C-alpha cells in the first residue's frame, strides 16, 4: 500500500530495516552490502532498497533529519508495511571525553529536548528505550569483530546550531552523544510493540574538538553498518 511518502507496495519491504538519515547512505549500503537489490522508494528522493544479506532479506531506507522526519517514515514502515525491527544508523557527536571519534555508540535510551512524546498525553516525562534484544545482539557483533563500542543514553536534539552550550548540562547527566532522530523512532516502536535500536559512529567530539578524518570516517561507518546488518538478519527468518 503506497503512502504519500513511500511508493512501495505490500511485501516489497523486509521485516528488518536499516534507517540512515541520508538517502545516499541508504544507497551506499544497498550497493556495497546487499545482493539482489531492488529499489522500492524514490518519493522525495528518500531512497529505499530491499536485498539479501547473508542469505536473508533486509531493507534500508533514508529518513531525513530530525524527529518529525523519522517519525513519519518509521510510523509508516511499522503500521503500513509491517516492519518489526528498525535500526537507525548514523553519526553522532560525543559529549564525553571517554567516547572517542570512531567509536560505535549504541543507544540504550534516548533523551530529547523536543516534544515528540507530547502526542501521547502522558502524565510525566517518557523515557524512550531501545529493544534489549537488538541491543544485546549488536553488542555481541561489535565485540566479535573487535570494534570499539559503548552503550548508554544519548540525546536526540531538535537543535543543531545552538546559542548556548547546552550539551554540557546533558553531559552531566551521563549522556554519551548527540544525534537528532532516535527518540521519535523509539517512541513509535515502543507504542507499536516492535523493536528499535540506534547505532552510531562518533564523527566528532564536542568536548575535544576532534573530528574523524574522511578515510577513517568511511571505515568507521562501514563497521557500524556491518554490526547493524548482522543484528538485523539475526531477527529475520
Automatic annotation (TrEMBL):
<feature type="binding site" description="in other chain">
    <location>
        <begin position="88"/>
        <end position="91"/>
    </location>
    <ligand>
        <name>phosphate</name>
    </ligand>
</feature>
<feature type="binding site">
    <location>
        <position position="44"/>
    </location>
    <ligand>
        <name>phosphate</name>
    </ligand>
</feature>
<feature type="domain" description="Nucleoside phosphorylase">
    <location>
        <begin position="17"/>
        <end position="211"/>
    </location>
</feature>
<dbReference type="Pfam" id="PF01048">
    <property type="entry name" value="PNP_UDP_1"/>
</dbReference>
<dbReference type="GO" id="GO:0005829">
    <property type="term" value="C:cytosol"/>
</dbReference>
<keyword id="KW-0808">Transferase</keyword>
<keyword id="KW-0328">Glycosyltransferase</keyword>
<comment type="function">
    <text>Catalyzes the reversible phosphorolytic breakdown of the N-glycosidic bond in the beta-(deoxy)ribonucleoside molecules, with the formation of the corresponding free purine bases and pentose-1-phosphate.</text>
</comment>
<feature type="binding site" description="in other chain">
    <location>
        <position position="21"/>
    </location>
    <ligand>
        <name>phosphate</name>
    </ligand>
</feature>
<dbReference type="InterPro" id="IPR000845">
    <property type="entry name" value="Nucleoside_phosphorylase_d"/>
</dbReference>
<feature type="binding site" description="in other chain">
    <location>
        <begin position="203"/>
        <end position="204"/>
    </location>
    <ligand>
        <name>a purine D-ribonucleoside</name>
    </ligand>
</feature>
<dbReference type="InterPro" id="IPR004402">
    <property type="entry name" value="DeoD-type"/>
</dbReference>
<dbReference type="GO" id="GO:0004850">
    <property type="term" value="F:uridine phosphorylase activity"/>
</dbReference>
<comment type="similarity">
    <text>Belongs to the PNP/UDP phosphorylase family.</text>
</comment>
<protein>
    <recommendedName>
        <fullName>Purine nucleoside phosphorylase DeoD-type</fullName>
        <ecNumber>2.4.2.1</ecNumber>
    </recommendedName>
</protein>
<dbReference type="InterPro" id="IPR035994">
    <property type="entry name" value="Nucleoside_phosphorylase_sf"/>
</dbReference>
<feature type="site" description="Important for catalytic activity">
    <location>
        <position position="217"/>
    </location>
</feature>
<feature type="binding site">
    <location>
        <position position="5"/>
    </location>
    <ligand>
        <name>a purine D-ribonucleoside</name>
    </ligand>
</feature>
<feature type="binding site" description="in other chain">
    <location>
        <position position="25"/>
    </location>
    <ligand>
        <name>phosphate</name>
    </ligand>
</feature>
<comment type="subunit">
    <text>Homohexamer; trimer of homodimers.</text>
</comment>
<dbReference type="GO" id="GO:0004731">
    <property type="term" value="F:purine-nucleoside phosphorylase activity"/>
</dbReference>
<feature type="active site" description="Proton donor">
    <location>
        <position position="204"/>
    </location>
</feature>
<dbReference type="InterPro" id="IPR018016">
    <property type="entry name" value="Nucleoside_phosphorylase_CS"/>
</dbReference>
<feature type="binding site" description="in other chain">
    <location>
        <begin position="179"/>
        <end position="181"/>
    </location>
    <ligand>
        <name>a purine D-ribonucleoside</name>
    </ligand>
</feature>
<dbReference type="GO" id="GO:0006152">
    <property type="term" value="P:purine nucleoside catabolic process"/>
</dbReference>
Amino acid at each position: 500500500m503506497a503512502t504519500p511518502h513511500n511508493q512501495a507496495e505490500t511485501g516489497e519491504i523486509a521485516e528488518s530495516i536499516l534507517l540512515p538519515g541520508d538517502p545516499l547512505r541508504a544507497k551506499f549500503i544497498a550497493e556495497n552490502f546487499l545482493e539482489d537489490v531492488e529499489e522500492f522508494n524514490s518519493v522525495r528522493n528518500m531512497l529505499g532498497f530491499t536485498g539479501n544479506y547473508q542469505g536473508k532479506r533486509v531493507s534500508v531506507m533514508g529518513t531525513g533529519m530530525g524527529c518529525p522526519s523519522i517519525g513519519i517514515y518509521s510510523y509508516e514502515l511499522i503500521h503500513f508495511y509491517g516492519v518489526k525491527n528498525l535500526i537507525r544508523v548514523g553519526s553522532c557527536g560525543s559529549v564525553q571525553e571517554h567516547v572517542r571519534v570512531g567509536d560505535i555508540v549504541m543507544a540504550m535510551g534516548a533523551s530529547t529536548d523536543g516534544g515528540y512524546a507530547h502526542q501521547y498525553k502522558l502524565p510525566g516525562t517518557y523515557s524512550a528505550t531501545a529493544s534489549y534484544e537488538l541491543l544485546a545482539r549488536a553488542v555481541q557483533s561489535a565485540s566479535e569483530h573487535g570494534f570499539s563500542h559503548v552503550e548508554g543514553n544519548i540525546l536526540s536534539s531538535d537543535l543543531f546550531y545552538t546559542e548556548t552550550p547546552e550539551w554540557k548540562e546533558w553531559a552531566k547527566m551521563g549522556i554519551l552523544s548527540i544525534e537528532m532522530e532516535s527518540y521519535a523512532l523509539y517512541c513509535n516502536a515502543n507504542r507499536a510493540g516492535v523493536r528499535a535500536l540506534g547505532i552510531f559512529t562518533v564523527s566528532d567530539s564536542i568536548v575535544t574538538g576532534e573530528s574523524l578524518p574522511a578515510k577513517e570516517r568511511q571505515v568507521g561507518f562501514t563497521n557500524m553498518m556491518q554490526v547493524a546488518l548482522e543484528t538485523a538478519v539475526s531477527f529475520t527468518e
